[in-house]
Amino acid sequence: MLSSGPGLTIGPARRQRLGPCHGNPGYTKTPIGHWLSSVAGSWMRDRRHPFYRGLLPPQRVVSVDLEPPKLSSSPTTASTIKLFFEPSGQPGSVVHGPVLTGRPEPLGASIDAETGAINFALVSSSSTAVSLVLFTEADLAAGRSSFEVPLNPFVNRTGDVWHVMLPGLRDDLLYGYRVNGLHQDTDADSPGHRHDENRVVLDPYAIAVLGRRRWGQLGPNLAYGEGGVLGLMSTWPQAAAAVPASGPHVAAFDWEGDRPLNLPMEGLVIYEAHVRGYTAHDSSGVTAPGTYAGMIEKLDHLQSLGINAIELLPVFEFNELEYYSQIPGSNEYRYNFWGYSTVNYFSPMGRYSAALAEGRHVRSTCDEFKKLVKECHKRGIEVILDVVFNHTAEGNERGPTISFRGLDNRVYYMLAPGGEYYNYSGCGNTLNCNQPVVRQLILDCLRYWVTEYHVDGFRFDLASILTRAPSAWHPQQYDEETGQPVAMSSGGAIVSAEGIMTDGAGVPTGTPLPDPPLVEAISEDPLLRNTKLIAEAWDCDGLNQVGAFPHYGGRWSEWNGKYRDVVRNFIKGTDGPWAGDFASAVCGSPNIYANTQPHESDWWGNNGGRQWRGGRGPSASINFVTAHDGFTLADVVSYNNKHNEANGEDNRDGEAHNNSWNCGEEGPSGKWEVNRLRQRQMRNLSAALLLSCGVPMITMGDEYGHSKGGNNNTYCHDSDLNYVRWDQLAADPSGFHRFIRLLINFRRATPALQRTTYVTEKDIQWHGELPHQPDWSDTSRLVAFTLSDGKGGGLYVAFNTSHMPRLLRMPVWAGRVWQPLVDTSKVAPYDFLAADSLLSVDDVTAARRSLAMWTADHMYPVLPWSCIVLVSAPEDPTATSMIRRTAAQSASSRSQPSSGDVGPKNPMSWATNLISSQPPPPPGPQRPGTPNHYGRAEHGTYGKMSTVSYNDSNGSASSSPLTSGRSFAAAVSSTPRRQSAPQPTRANWRTVLQEASEAAAAALGSTSPPRDTGGAAAAAATASAELSLAEQAALTQALSENSELRRRLGLNR
User: Fold this and answer.
1) Torsion on CA atoms 940, 943, 949, 950, rounded to nearest 10
2) Beta partners for 635?
3) Where is the Glycosyl hydrolase family 13 catalytic domain (predicted)?
């Protein structure tokens, strides 16, 4: 029985016949396991044993017939059946016992459960010789091998699989393969072959890889290129794979009963994240920044944000120093930060491991990643891996030989007849995905990550390459006598009559296949049945399959790039068909995923992809406004053009067509009106994303407005450009983090937004300024709709992307009223009316009642470039009643809190509920305790401010906008000031102003004011003096904007 591991094991393991051991002294005719325990100790202690004096000659294996084959795919392929546990003739060494024949499956290195021996199996169809190379870590760092076991082609090969088994192998060793064969540079008649016996290549099925231990660490300074020195250069030192281990000294990972979450696709909110970038910044405060362990420490942030699926940028082994060089014009160096350049598909990225950096065995990387997955699942978060099966790190003919190229270049890569590389990936090579061996590798890989690491799904980078026809070559055949190739086509490219490379069945290489074997195999695989499958349905050669990626019954979702473009264009207010397209995007893009009729410009949809058009629901659309490659959310509203100068490529790299708008000034701005508009637009884009049907995806850092300075291609930066700034997130100066957190959780609590089928006329109605009168013209800047929840309630949502305000009349639903929830024109925390640590239930109620003059008449004013969301609720007769406080509440408000008490919920003033952003800071120094930005004060964080009284004995009532009204001023002027009157402070200003108003009203109704109200009126007279300059400016601005809005809406009498 074989232990689990990546490979081809299917069905129950079978016990193998154990034959006698021959060839070396001391062997007994006992099962291998007993031989290992009874004999190994004696021969390893006996220094007179022949293997200490040199290499033994190959021993004859009497139980195996080694007659050479008459004619086969290779002159070295044995046609007889080998006995897997028979000695294959090579001697043992100090690190393992005598070599056994081994099994041809599973591929990779695995442990035989009966004997404990390590079995190695490798596919290499065109090689003429293979050696298993073993390393200690010290020898690996020195660029030399420790032990090499040459495989006997008559015994250690079955078909195209080379295999060997080593009993008693030390599990602290590492391994690779030395593979010899033809190379097209020295054998002109063998195009496509690139074997190099001077390289030691990685096993494609390696479960863990060690090259360097720490991120960014250069390899040893060796004489690379000289004979006997392994490795390419200090940025590409020799790498090797971990030998699997078992036994009492190896603790099995404790999953604690972890099982797949199997969350419904339509209920996901995906967070695209980079393992290193998530915690690498010092402000993360984690123990091991930039690692799997560091990410675990910050998972609670994602849970509180409302995220239930994390999509990790590549975590398969890659080389971050692949591009390592100084960036021209700077002191920084270029890294492969994102990781889209795979070295090995079965190994977690080692330099994301805190354990590996601490010096633990390379296998500890596997356990650390498993713990990350387990901790995600504990928080209800699924793990989706971004996988790159379109190309590898070996690049084109000038790239390094690391693994696949040295094993079977013709098999693993799409090649032209002369051995040139097809480049559909834009990265130098293209994986030959639909070639049977490569197809099986990919399928085995996906199965392995699901079963071994419990991951929940995969996002396939440039997935259209998975649908392209492979390249194929005639098998090489040899004459039994001469060993020379036979037949004119032997080993040559399979080409069409026009000389074009084909897949062996007449289909030109690279042609998109209507029924791609790989995609079908993934879709129908029973182990992958419940995993999420997401396609980036395009590639770098112009093939775009969005809406028609082969989905096999809806198994696949797609990154919807069209959604991104539509939402950006509509929100910034662009002329064109964007209003109608935006409405479709909000519904989950039925025009893309339900419509069976392709557009005339859709080449794929009108040809091989026509059968895949339509037939899917909203969850087929992965909606996103930003992603890792492109502008961040903050940069979409701050830059018209890309600014990639920091990449050292003269700003030539990156996408030039970004559909962005800088809101009036390029880059950082000191203009209040520009920054106000940017805050609105960030909220508008987020609202569009999270209020649309389909599956929303948020990019790491967008939850607090991370900026990359207009750089839309930060693939090469290991710096703050790509790091989450936890200090900025905690500060949250504009309240955007609160807004998006509440919006995400609102979405997850609203079933009407999580749909498996598209909306109908019963579910959604479209409106304009008047109900049921939408405007779908090319100049339309308004999209409004009501979405029913099927229970009598629902939502009213409107996006005004014009520079003009709108007065919207909402539809009347009998017995119900519209309650404001979201208004992106308002300053935080009033942009989202939900009770939390910043707004109490009373605050929310008061804010809604302040708008009752509109909502009671089913109307609502919408400022330019704003989004509103209102919730249908039963009519409440008290909604327009005056808000009164009880005596106990008033007394409590009048009491002076201690310095540790919580201050008012709004750190500016009540006026901030009326304006769309904060006023600019007043000139000169602020007084102690005055909030210098949203959510914080000099004495502490928002909600924890020390109580500070602001008294100004020289303030006058006439200077305050609060007392500019005639009746209020009269009341004040007729009332003497009392020194004992309570002074307005941040703790009691609401009560003081209310008492002042009541006193003024009472004064107007009598010939002489009541003696007990003079103090309150006097306090009101000085109220403006007790407000900070910033608060006075906010109040003035609020009154001005309110007056201007009423004038523009024609509401002034």
Assistant:
1) 90
2) none
3) 272-747
* Residue 505 tokens, joined: 């069945």
How is 796-864 classified by DSSP, letter by letter? Answer: EEEEE-SSS-EEEEPPP-TTEEEEEEEETTSPTTTTB---SSSS-HHHHHHHHHTTHHHHTTTEEEE-S
| pLDDT at residue 249, rounded to an integer | 78
**What is the predicted pLDDT for the residue at 1006?**
43
351 neighbors 215 (Cβ within 8 angstroms): yes
CA separation for the pair 215, 350 (Å, rounded): 9
DSSP 181-214: --BTTT-TT-TT-B--TT-EEPPTT-S-EES-SS
pLDDT digits (tens, 9 = 90+) for 175-189: 999 999 999 999 988
Kindly report the length of the chain: 1053
Please tell me the predicted confidence (pLDDT) of residue 214: 97
Torsion of CA 946, 947, 951, 955, to 10 degrees: 90
Enter the tokens of residue 3: 């232990």
394 is catalytic: no
Contact assessment for residue 76 and residue 128, using Cβ atoms and an 8 Å cutoff: yes
The Cα 798–Cα 803 span in angstroms is 15
Query: 8: closest CA among 593, 445, 433?
Result: 445
| 3-class DSSP state of 271 | strand
Q: Which pTM value belongs to this model? A: 0.80
CA atoms within 13 A on the CB side of 491: 23
- How many CA atoms, within 13 angstroms, populate the side-chain half-sphere of residue 120? 29
Which helix (H) or strand (E) segment is 372 a member of?
A: helix 364-378
Q: Which two tokens stand for residue 530?
A: 């419940």
| Cis? peptide before 829, omega within 30° of 0 | yes
Chain centroid to Cα 330, Å, comes to: 29
Residue in this structure with the two tokens 């009204």, named with its chain if needed: 965
Which residues, in sequence order, are CB contacts of 54 under 8 Å at separation 6+? Answer: none
CA-based end-to-end distance of the chain: 90
Whole-number Å distance between alpha carbons of 714 and 626: 14
How much is the pLDDT for 802?
A: 97
The residues with which 166 forms a beta bridge, in sequence order, are 118
Angstrom distance (rounded) from CA 903 to CA 906: 8
Q: Which two tokens stand for residue 466?
A: 């998975």
C-alpha to C-alpha distance for 463 and 387, rounded to whole angstroms: 10
Q: Which of 461, 703, 732, 823 is catalytic?
A: 461
Pick the closest to residue 545 from 557, 553, 533 (CA basis): 557
344 and 403 in contact (C-beta within 8 Å)?
Answer: yes
Instruction: Using alpha carbons, select from 117, 80, 105 the residue that is nearest to residue 13.
Output: 105
Give the separation between CA 213 and CA 350, rounded to whole angstroms.
7
- 3-state class of 520 per DSSP? helix
- What is the CA angle 131-134-135, rounded to 5? 145
**Residue numbers in the chain where pLDDT is lower than 70:** 1-82, 478-490, 879-1053
**Token pair of 336 as six digits:** 């492969």
Q: How far apart are CA 942 and CA 920, in angstroms?
A: 19
3-state secondary structure of 120: strand
User: Catalytic one among 536, 558, 831, 1031?
Assistant: 536
Q: What are phi and psi of 234, to 5 degrees?
A: -65, -25
* 3-state SS record for 293-315: HHHHHCHHHHHHHCCCEEEECCC
Dist. CA 733–CA 63, nearest whole Å: 79
Q: Which of 205, 142, 216, 155 is nearest to 177 (CA)?
A: 205
For residue 106, whether the previous peptide bond is cis, meaning omega lies within 30 degrees of 0, is: yes
Cα 959 to Cα 982: distance, rounded to the nearest angstrom: 20
Identify the bridge partners of residue 200 per DSSP, sorted by sequence position: 178
What kind and span of H or E run contains 345?
strand 342-348
Residue 988, helix vs strand vs coil: coil
Strands 457-460 and 532-535, bridge-based pairing: parallel
